[in-house]
Amino acid sequence: MTKQVAHPMVKFQRKAASLVGSKVIKSSDNIWKLALLYGDEWPYWKQELLDFGFTMNDQVNDILVVEAWDED
Fold it and tell me: What is the DSSP string of 26-70?
């Protein structure tokens, strides 16, 4: 039996959804605001987002609506 491992961006997406749900950030906030919450981990996540075609001026909601984090 093989266990399927979730893409790291799924974890990031869930965390962003949690932050929106707890009203720490708004879904309409720009992605760059997440940098304030991720501290030293931000360069990694920023590069992941850039690799998926996001810009730091995109809204957090743009992350939340992604259905699959496939790397083609």
Answer: -TTSBGGGGHHHHGGGHHHHHHHHHHTT--TTSBHHHHHT-----
